Give the backbone structure.
Amino acid sequence: FMQDTESATKRTYGPIIKTTGIVALIFTLFLGVTIFVLYNLASNELKRSRIAEEKLKASEELYRSIYHNTPAMLHSINRECRLINVSSFWLEMTGYTRNEVLGRKLTDFFSPESKHRAETQILPDFFEGPGINRDIPYQLIKKDGGTLDILLSCYGIRDENGRINRTLAVSVDI
């Protein structure tokens, strides 16, 4: 009777165990191939991302170099009218260092008349309007107390909501 039970068990469970083993092997192979494919896709995406980041960094460095080394008085302000960037030529013409100007209001460097007009009329209209000004006359006060009569032209750089959040401006010594 025991042999019959063993034989019946082998006949019943043998094919199930054999089939389960084959299914487990196929599933394991499928899982391995899937992981390999996903790993390669992720690896390629990381490479593309790294290359894009390197290109962006090189582009930013080129922009920064052009901005700082162009023989023009360039500056950028934020919505609070604080200087966030100035060109080396701007510093050369005014006599200040970068540390002395960054973070300060642009109008801190204007004559009282220019400051009043900028803060009460020109800048509010600029930030709420079309975001472009051309040849606005101002008077800059240099570090040594001298003055520079300039014409300032600028345009606004907008955020994703269309709101001007910074400027790029060029001043010409007249």
The helical segments are 2-69, 88-94, 98-101, 112-128. The longest helix spans residues 2-69. The two ends are 116 Å apart (CA to CA).
